[in-house]
Design a protein that fits this description.
9 helices; single chain; two-stranded antiparallel ribbon; about 270 residues; mainly alpha; globular
Amino acid sequence: MYGRVKETVDRARAFIKAFPATSRWPTILAQSYCNLSEAQRTCLGIIGLQAAVFAVWHVPIPALARLYPWLVHDPLAKGRAVTLLTSIFSHQTPMHFLFNSLAFYSFGPTTIEWLQAKLPRREDKAGPRSTSRYEFVAFFVAAGLFSSLGSHVWSARVLYPRLQGLLRPSLGASGAIYSAVSITALAYPEASVSLIFFPFFPIPIGTAYWSMVAFDAVGLVRGWKMFDHAAHLSGAVFGLLYYSFGHHYFEQFRAWLKSVEPNAERRRVEGVGR
């Protein structure tokens, strides 16, 4: 295993050294990244994590194969509840990874901007904050978990009692992305979107969103197996809930943490005093 890892590192070093010392590409790339908004950099960070997991599927190191069962969620597997989380960042096929990354980079920054517009004022109990990055990360993880759980319940409680052969392990960030699409459609109903195959024909985002929801609802009822329709619909529901209540409860949680911290510090000081 060590030999394969060393070989991979050596190849990466050789690739980097192949650039001439006077090449401006590293500077151009770094400057382009710095010019991005915080929302875009946040989404690129999550996409980078997903790219690392995608590489695990395809780097030819036998030891990494042991991780495969932990990168997909099997509704019938025992003792692997953590895959409800890890499967969110996992994409096995290039097309799945590409389309989800494009969709996430399109709707993720818009969701962050909506959260940024709702930042608490100085007089709020939780206190002011300068960024919505951390709330968005919490939103993304919670949306993914909610979607994974919805898919799990549908598979284990509805599909499995009928026909075990229909069950397939699930993976991907589609459910969390659906939640971001939901918030975008509700927060900016006047916006339009373009399909990747028909970029010259903008569609009102409300029409596109509810058409997607209808498609997944039909697919869920009809038992179509190409997509995880249960995860998609669960993500849509989470987005609707978060748009209506989520930010308020997030701020309440921050206020509670703020009230707990002084008490914890006081108990620590009293303990040292004794």
